[in-house]
Description:
- The chain is an alpha/beta fold.
- It is 40% helix and 24% strand.
- Strands 1, 2, 3, 4, 5, 6 and 12 form a seven-stranded mixed sheet that branches. A five-stranded mixed sheet has the order 9-8-7-10-11.
- Helix 2 packs parallel to helix 3, helix 6 crosses helix 10 (257-270) and helix 8 packs across helix 11.
Amino acid sequence: xxxxxxxxxxxxxxxxxxxxxxxxxxxxxxxxxxxxxxxxxxxxxxxxxxxxxxxxxxxxxxxxxxxxxxxxxxxxxxxxxxxxxxxxxxxxxxxxxxxxxxxxxxxxxxxxxxxxxxxxxxxxxxxxxxxxxxxxxxxxxxxxxxxxxxxxxxxxxxxxxxxxxxxxxxxxxxxxxxxxxxxxxxxxxxxxxxxxxxxxxxxxxxxxxxxxxxxxxxxxxxxxxxxxxxxxxxxxxxxxxxxxxxxxxxxxxxxxxxxxxxxxxxxxxxxxxxxxxxxxxxxxxxxxxxxxxxxxxxxxxxxxxxxxxxxxxxxxxxxxxxxxxxxxxxxxxxxxxxxxxxxxxxxxxxxxxxxxxxxxxxxxxxxxxxxxxxxxxxxxxx
Length: 382
């Protein structure tokens, strides 16, 4: 990574807090635009893990809360996001005056595709703390235009991460799994994208429910030691979401703590002698088979390679399961092609912030189903 001082391009900070609730990913990205072709350079990247108290507050907000609690959490989260932005700016060796904007996704609290969406993380707090313009609330305009409001990483998948010669599937494994199918050269007219179902989120929730001392299945060890209960996975895949035609999106409102508790109970009823490891392995198989099922049902394009990113791509047991499920397709890690895959979504929202500043649309209509192309985000001045 290189410092940005005295170099051309526009610097934008991207902030992402995903459905896994593990922390904030913050990236400083330099964008250059030559004849409409945008290039991106990752200048700095950091992750700030949430404390147990912060995580628990966010997790509670997904299922319950009073107006006072949501109000306080929105301001506090703005402060946590601002701290992550300040840290990555310092680590990148640039000054705040060089930053054109901070693009903050915030934290999704509720997402009802086609109707409403809600992300917390007060942009005014970030702007006050850092004295930099903030672009936030990216999903609401697409939803207002009749779209799903997700996936929004599709624009970055096309502009920055496409293959020059072959069809590519970029599979994110955050809390929720989503895929963008990108034609050679990133032709926007040929893109399709949708949420495949769980990414690492169900695995994480199952792990924490069974082993409260663990934040997630570290190195995939629990899943690797277990034997999945395939009949339970088959039952779970009968949920109408998986058969629904794209465009479609989902979130923690479906794959909730209640969903996980029911899954654990079903595993124990189906196999009374099952171990914790077996239940985690079942969650791994659910993610892998849901991805395979989505590709078989909805992806007819001649995809040459599948590129995995997000927290789930750090789980070798999940990666092996997905590779086996998608064989003979080539499954590769985003890290091996570009940069640390944990930074990918932060970079993607930095791009959406950059496009907002340039007055260019940020949604891909074929991915979200919106009525038209829209400039995404709301600008909070410094």
